[in-house]
UniProtKB/TrEMBL annotation:
Gene3D superfamilies: Hotdog Thioesterase
Record keyword Hydrolase present: yes
InterPro entries to which the protein is assigned, alphabetical: 4-hydroxybenzoyl-CoA_TE, HotDog_dom_sf, YbgC/YbaW
Keywords: Hydrolase
PANTHER family per UniProt: 4-HYDROXYBENZOYL-COA THIOESTERASE FAMILY MEMBER (PTHR31793), NOVEL THIOESTERASE SUPERFAMILY DOMAIN AND SAPOSIN A-TYPE DOMAIN CONTAINING PROTEIN (0610012H03RIK) (PTHR31793:SF27)
Species for this entry: Sporosarcina highlanderae
Protein name listed in UniProt: Thioesterase family protein
Family: Belongs to the 4-hydroxybenzoyl-CoA thioesterase family.
Domain of life: Bacteria
Amino acid sequence: MFISEKEIEIRYAETDQMGVVYHANYLIWMEIGRTSLIQDLGFTYAGLEAEGYLSPVIDLSIQYKAAMRYGQTAKVRTWVESHGKLRTVYGYEILHEDGTVAATATSEHILVKRDSFRPIALKKVDSEWDAKYTEIRRVAD
């Protein structure tokens, strides 16, 4: 299983009134993790969009384990949990510097044509990308 890792310095603006990272920022970090994974594999999401395709989130699950605070560095670990004909599920771990798990999550995505929002298989759009996801996925569909 291939895992991409990306470090993020936590900014003051990402914290809430209690001094901990506001929960919605984890979703942004997950997007950064997905983008990093895709780039690590030699592809670009921006390139996919330029060709007229989008990959909307259709399901999201996140479990918060240990609060993170301003001044810390978060490590986002991202992998392909499963990849099928129309759906890709990414897995995430967000870690403290000492390795303590701050959050775990999954996000499920489909690929659609921008103009019609009709689902399309990644294999039809980019067979190399599809093959790489099939190769590195953690769980076979």
